[in-house]
Hints:
Elements: H1 4-8, H2 17-29, H3 35-51, E1 52-58, E2 69-74, H4 81-93, E3 98-103, H5 104-107, H6 110-118, E4 122-124, E5 132-133, E6 137-142, E7 146-153, H7 157-160, E8 166-168, E9 175-181, E10 186-189, H8 196-203, E11 209-211, H9 217-228, E12 232-235, H10 253-264, E13 270-280, E14 287-293, E15 297-299, H11 301-309, H12 311-327, H13 336-348, H14 358-375, H15 379-398, H16 412-460, H17 472-502, H18 506-509, H19 513-552, H20 556-584, H21 588-600, H22 602-616, E16 622-623, H23 666-682
Parallel strand pairs: 1-14, 2-12, 2-13, 3-4, 3-12, 15-16
Antiparallel strand pairs: 5-11, 6-7, 7-10, 8-9, 8-11, 9-10, 13-14, 13-15
Helix pairs in contact: 3-4, 9-10, 10-11, 10-12, 11-12, 13-14, 14-20, 15-20, 16-17, 16-19, 17-19, 21-22
Protein name: Phospholipid/glycerol acyltransferase domain-containing protein
Organism: Kuraishia capsulata CBS 1993
GO molecular function: glycerol-3-phosphate O-acyltransferase activity; glycerone-phosphate O-acyltransferase activity
Amino acid sequence: MGSNDAQTEQKPLLATESEEKDVNRSKKRQPKPTIVYDFLMWLSLIVTDIFFREVKFTGTFNIPVSGPAIIVIAPHANQFLDGALTMLALKKAVNRPLHFVEAATSLKRQIVGKLSRMSGAIPVERPQDLLRPGPGTITFSNYETDPCLLVGTGTQFTKDCEVKGLIGLPHSAGSSKIQEVVSDTEIRISKPFKTGIAVDMIKSGTPYKVAPKVDNGHVFNAVFAQLHRGGVVGISPEGGSHDRTDLLPLKPGVAIMGLGAVAEDPTYPIKIVPCGMNYFHPHKFRSRAVLEFGTPIVLTAEDGAKYRENPRDTVSALLKTLTDAMKTVTVTCPDYETLMIIQAARRLYDFPIKPVPLGAVLDMNRRLIIGYTRYQDDPRIMHLKDSVLRYNAKLEQLGIRDHQVEIARVGKPRVFFRLLQRVASLAIMATLSLPGTLLFSPVFIAAKVISAKKQRDALANSTVKIKANDVLGSWKVLVAMVVAPLLYFTYSLLGTILLRRYEIVPVVSKLHPLVIFCLIWAVLVSTTFAAFWIGEVGMDIFKSIRPLFSALGPNQNMLQEVQEERRRLTMEVTGVCNDLGPKVFPDFNRVIQKSIHKGLDEEEEEREDTAKSVSMRSQSSSSLNSIVSTGPSSIASVGPLENLGDIQIFSDTPARTRRPSADVSNWIEQAVISKNREKLKEL
């Protein structure tokens, strides 16, 4: 898979008049956004505008302007917001509706279900969602000799279980597919339980849960129908959402959807577009997000024929290709500590322009992870790792962040003056935002309490989540969508009654009650939004006060030591990266230069990308034809088209970019800007 620059040099694929006519026919038959869908997108835009400080879509020229396509998103790190952001990206880039393959349990929820049905979601049942307690208890017949044979006491396996159904343990300790129902008291599973908790539970005798066999044939038929109409289908092949630092194994359902559809109707090629969901603190209010769309994988009639002849190897090859493609648009780490080291190294690298553009941040993170993985046993890398960990520990001890270390460069008189200025600004902003904050506080309280409860529930019912942070952001939004209108309605109703009864404002009190109600509603919304924006700037100021105190207080010497250590680490990190970078990436220097120009005129580059989109959407793709099967993957069995019901789909286990608020450290930025100009002259 080549880079975007390489793609721009390719000759357009739409070289003949007949091919252009095919595209025009595809455009005519593909689904168009409905009024209901547009309303949903407008609502999603408002929600994401409020929750996120900045949202950026990159690589949107890779989204097909016409024809059938599958958008594959990963990692699934924000339960319900992932879908909303992806749909907004397609709406902005190509004005095409996106139909997500979604868990049936989500469609049964009050709010999420209604919104999902409005968007045309395709429901799919997951076996783990159908688990129900069974009578009696189970244990191993003999774990050492046959860990797949379970025996029951007081069980009715012949009545409650079926082949290819699911048997699970309490507290989501594990589950396994049923291979054979031997008798009412004996059952054989396809794979043994591996975790120590699950094995210990079964050895001591445990209650269990069972789920029937799930037939996903109708789901595949619905997806095929949508693709044959020229539509766009979205799916997260990891299954449920999670908060891990690495991708979960992709399930074969997404590969079957593409290959099965092109095998049934090879008239139009199907493009599978990887979409990386990159969040910066996804569970926090006013965080940032970057959606990156990668090079499409094109499935042609030839791939459909290969799938009919050898489904297993063809699906394995596509799944391997898709996994590699997802890694090019996401930032994945083996563990949390590695992620912290990589992010610290990226901040310490002496990048020629600051602040570093979001796109460059993601690209640097990916490249640093690859380089770190390859050279992690190098003595220089090992020394850097220890130094960065010690540096992070000192920052935590001081209670400041890396970007605040620069405060130690300024003299005490100026620091003191800046401290007074910011305390005064904070007092003014707190006063201005207080009315709206008090009015809206029930929403914040309800969102925090309910999302925390949902987090605990999700963590208890999952074997893949670490802290279940992936559900926090979505539930904060859902709670706010319900509580905020109810709160505004209550306030407006009370205000209308008081104004009419006591004539507090005579001019307004004489108006029609409905007019008064609407006026109060508008004032309340304006007040809370004003408090919202003022409070955001005030919070930035509040966060900057602590390092100012540190620069004046008893920790001044320690802060200066950290500053010296940061300068040393910056030189060391930059030197190691510049030395090893070209060995890992031959285009290392070109990427740095490209990032500089991107930072100098990011908006201009976005306009250029948009201009290129029409000619590039059809040509920036990679075919499956060149992929050779690398052997079996996570696929248990892939049968012909008539056996699609047995295929796993899920695991059984904004329309604009907004600028962040004004930086409260402008006095530092002036020096940084001067430094950047000098470096740019040298380049």
